Amino acid sequence: MEMTPYQLANNTPLTLTPKFTLPKAERPNLSEVLPSDSIPIIDLNDHDIDDGQGPSPLVSKISQACEEYGFFHIINHGVPKELCQKVLVVASEFFQLPPEERAQYLSKDHRKQVKVFSYYRKYEGIGKVTMWSETFSHPWHPTEDFTHLLPTNPPQYREVFAEYARAIGVLFDRLLSLISRGLGLDEDCLKRRIGEKPGLNTQANYYPVCPDPELTMGLPDHNDLGSITVLLQVEGVTGLQVIKDGKWLTVDPVPDAFVINLADQTQVLSNGKFKSVRHRAVTNKLLPRLSLGMFYNPNYDTVIGPIEDLIDEKHPPKYRKYSFKEYMEEFYRQEGKRRVIEAFELPRTLRTCFCFLKNKIK
Ligand SMILES: O=C(O)CCC(=O)C(=O)O
Ligand SMILES: [Fe+2]
What we know:
Elements: E1 41-43, H1 57-68, E2 71-75, H2 81-96, H3 99-103, E3 115-117, E4 120-123, E5 127-130, E6 134-139, H4 157-182, H5 189-194, E7 199-207, E8 219-222, E9 228-233, E10 240-244, E11 247-250, E12 258-262, H6 264-269, E13 279-281, E14 289-297, E15 303-304, E16 322-323, H7 324-333, H8 348-356, H9 358-361
Parallel strand pairs: 1-2
Antiparallel strand pairs: 2-12, 3-6, 4-5, 6-7, 7-14, 8-13, 9-12, 9-14, 10-11, 10-13, 15-16
Bound molecules: 2-oxoglutaric acid and fe (ii) ion.
Residues 222, 224, 279 line the site of fe (ii) ion.
């Protein structure tokens, strides 16, 4: 049965024309992707009192997951199930609006706060290939600054989103504090280092049904930019994959869970102890998929670099200090390659020198 293709906001039908087809070497190779059984599921209700001997069982589990995977699920996270369902409904209704209604948000200008766009990658000899998805992105806090820019259709969008953002704000504080303690730091350390007035953005990714998922990608492989990401995915439709020991693993949705993934700034702040993991989203033949990421980024003026308490002779700094503005300039310079922190790595010879200078660079 022929399906009617999804109409992107720019009124292009999403079909397997060369514009949306990946060169052979870049295809997802789905038969080689492994199942996700091993990705940790962490219960936030676990025992969380430090007993004076070491971190609480909850903090130990989190820090182990951050070190080994940089990716984990959380359950019993305190965000009501109904609220998660409601936010997925309004986000998915948004993508069902007629293309001309979504088109008012179309923009390639990265400074624009509220925008609809599609990811693409440039390939040598081929040029741009557009990914099999559409993304709607906007800030999630402080709501009074941007709510008037959000859609009035679907009618509940603004209200549901504001409620979801409040709940996720509380969750971010808890996660940042658990991850900070997992690094052996005080609970406010990470949040303090990510700094004042963080850039809080959300991204709803819609992946329409694809006649041949082997030929396309929903979202190409990348690392997230900020500190941590809280991702909600619709249940029953897979698509997210992460790389572990050189192999792609699927991250199947776990009921009532969020996926937490560490992003580049946490890898740098932790001096490489905690991993920002490469991930991607593939497409599906039978069902469309929707994911909703909530991001917590430093603002442009914040200076990021390995936290001094984590540096000693055995752990010389792996990265130089940079402002988040510099990081983003590098990000845009790479045009989607998204291997940004590699540009801030210190050459090995310099790392040990920095140790001698430790007191000076504080
Ligand atoms: O759709 C997904 O599961 C992945 C989304 C993602 O990686 C992102 O928005 O950064
Ligand atoms: Fe991501």
